[in-house]
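From: lab user (bench 3)
To: helpdesk
Subject: output format question, protein + flavin-adenine dinucleotide

Hello, I'm new to running complex predictions and I'm not sure whether the block I got back is the full result or only part of it. Here's what I submitted:
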Amino acid sequence: MSASTISVTLKIWRQKNPQDKGHFETYPITVSTDASFLEMIDQLNGDLIVQGKDPVAFDHDCREGICGMCGAMVNGYAHAHEKATTLCQTHMRSFKNGEEIVIEPWRASAFPIIKDLMVDRSSFDKIIQSGGYISVSTGSAPDANATPISKIAADHAFASAACIGCGACVAACPNASAMLFVSAKISHLAHLPQGRVEGKKRAAAMIDRMDELGFGNCTNHRECEAACPKEIKLENIALMNREFLTAEFA
Amino acid sequence: MGITLDAKIPSGNIADKWDKHKFESKLVNPANRRKFTVLVVGTGLAGASAAATLAEQGYKVKTFCFQDSPRRAHSIAAQGGINAAKNYRNDGDSVYRLFYDTIKGGDYRAREANVHRLAQVSVNIIDQCVAQGVPFAREYGGYLDNRSFGGTQVARTFYAAGQTGQQLLLGAYSALSRQIEQGAIESHTRTEVLDIVVVNGRARGIITRHLITGEVKRHMGDAVLLCTGGYSTVFFLSTNAMGCNVTATWRAHKKGAVFANPCFTQIHPTSIPVHGENQSKLTLMSEGLRNDGRVWVPKAKNDKRRAEDIPEAERDYYLEERYPSFGNLVPRDVASRAAKKVCDEGRGVGSSGQSVYMDFRDSIKRLGKQVITEKYGNLFDMYHKITGENPMEQPMRIYPAPHYTMGGLWVDYNLMSTIPGLFVLGEANFSDHGANRLGASALMQGLADGYFVIPYTLANYFGATTLEKVDTQNPAFGDAENTVKERLNRILSVKGNRTVDSFHKELGRAMWDNCGMSRNAEGLTKTIEHISKLRDEFWNTVRVPGDANYVNPELEKAGRVADFLEFSELMCRDALSRNESCGGHFREEYQTEDNEARRDDENYCYVAGWEFNGVGKEPTLHKEQLVFDNVKLTQRSYK
Ligand SMILES: Cc1cc2nc3c(=O)[nH]c(=O)nc-3n(C[C@H](O)[C@H](O)[C@H](O)COP(=O)(O)OP(=O)(O)OC[C@H]3O[C@@H](n4cnc5c(N)ncnc54)[C@H](O)[C@@H]3O)c2cc1C
Ligand code: SF4
Ligand code: FES
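Helpdesk reply: Thanks, we reran it on our side. This is the complete output you should expect:
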């Protein structure tokens, strides 16, 4: 950890509430290169508070890339430019001295802005509620080793289950589609025998709900895959489409 | 006062207690269950599993969490795994051995009956999670894989890569979501619980504040379940999420719930060290790394050479030296203290001198880079991202960090606090880990409490109690709501010049130095005074911008820090009154000749339960004497 500092200019989207039109504000800041991106905003907020100004509102919690709470567009990239990295795991050493950094919230009609960089992602919960589960009640499970599951299937299921529900895929998509998020859950469960039982019903229900909530369509821009901090694969969408089509015509 | 800590442990043989208790418990007829409203605060492993299960059984459930989705509770961050006495490995595990290991690991400060029940239901947890679709790691034959974890001699830990907590929580969240869709659960997100409402001695409701609209609201319930997690963030820097707090349990404590063993905190030995003033949190490096990483510091003080320039003969592999049989794998409390000791001696490394090396050089030589990448690639990447240093090329630097809190609200065998109708589950209660928690056992406990214990004990409470009709017009609701609003206004009206974070950092530093890895009477006494001054300063000089009518993260933080400024004093008092060393509680005055913890079973074999008497006032100590009928108390030794 080589402690040095850089000076950068932040252009941050400020919006008081959903009704406010919003605008960019510019803040110069000198920050340690060891600081994380969110620690940089903490530092800015500390200064703003002492100056009697309104600090920048942003969502965050775990600060280790797993809760899915953080996220913003940084210089046009969801979760900043580093590959497979959430905003909270991005560090200032990956920016250059003198750089201008533009910070905006996720923009999608299904994710209304609450304040500054905070958006409302409750639509993701609603999609899961429509069927993103196996219908098993507590107590009715057989022994865990009763059904062997091939390691390959289990690993595939895990890779899709790693989605953190951050919404970067929606923010990056020109159509604000939630296909990558939805397909990750469908694919996680479709790879497991216990998940196959409701497979088609699940796909149909989740896709219907996604449409109802105002997410856009997938027209193969592949931006979602590039933005996803957990490297969720686009192949999941193809698998989901197969599940869905057979569900429609079954 | 009239408090006695009756644990209500069922009679009979340890192995039969739970079954007997379940049979003797009252039931609630399925048709009657919807007449009961259960308020579940927290949607981590404990809360989500409890809420889903109770809703499946027919109760009316409301859940509350402060994040924007139930899926984001801090359980999501658990890496290593979850224990269960499945004995799939045929390597000598059993319910009794898991029970025994947990009691011993806790340094004989946990309740036997609870821990045995935990070991019993552990096997059902794995079954349930697999049925939900939790993608645990598997072997090529298709069966579940296990590893050994945290200094145990059997492989009983189930895991999903380094994301076990995430996968288990998504499992519980999926069960929760299914019940929300069916209308059995009303989910309140971005909602913080700020008080518990007690009517005629029973918990009958809560007061919440919505973190977007600012609306303060009353909720009535027939029982309240606090599943609000741990309070490691009292130290400011910890491996916990930024929002973790003591607010709900502390406010319940102020309403009469006894707080047990608040000073029992776990300091995890392998976290990425502190880089500077603006640091906001510490990231854990899974302790699995200790299987292949050798821990060392230079033999000489203030040795500023680069690691690779320090010859073998001048390195001190202090864990291997001191603990030849466990070596780098000694339990967490022992490893943490040893790291502190060498740093205090001036032999720590890195620019701050507050870290030790964990070196993979020899393992890379022995096993090759590829094997090491397969085993630890993720963790190495994470380390690289945070520090800019590559552990393949230079040793990792690690240092202990606050991680888990064994202390919590006191509960009896039924998980009920000293306020009837107020139940406490998961990390928020004190029940199962004594003075030190073994790795991979917190996930187990959270899910045991939620899926398999509370459904029985809550039914017993409802079945055995005649609950009067109460609505939110009851004066107790009005009083609680007023207290909450007054406190919010009071915080906003200070309009001073110090940020909330600056208070939190100062408090955290004082607690880390004096009530952290090692404690002494002088430091604790000084810190109690320090906290009291800091509290006054907070109420006179804190600056919280904005108002309470819309999004205001500074106001949320201020409320939590204000609670920490009261609670931390109780931690110090508890540490001061326990004149022994046990598990994570190390009192410098009570150590053996070779600097190991010296327990005092004759005088301190009890749970310390504290009753609130007012802010800044001496609390009253109530003791629950621990009785060991099955396990013999011995000195823990890892030499
Ligand atoms: C980095 C890390 C790694 C870990 N690894 C492991 C491991 O490998 N194995 C293991 O067994 N254990 C591990 N642990 C410990 C374990 O993860 C936790 O003890 C456990 O998950 C806690 O679960 P919980 O349900 O009690 O609380 P949490 O998951 O913390 O949930 C708390 C809930 O309460 C809510 N809440 C809190 N306060 C309020 C309030 N005032 N109002 C409304 N809602 C509130 C939150 O929103 C949240 O929903 C780890 C812990 C950490 C920090
Ligand atoms: S698919 Fe990727 S980008 Fe989309 S919500 Fe999941 S983790 Fe985030
Ligand atoms: S804060 Fe949790 S993923 Fe970034």
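A quick orientation on your result: The radius of gyration of chain A is 20 Å. Let us know if anything else is unclear.
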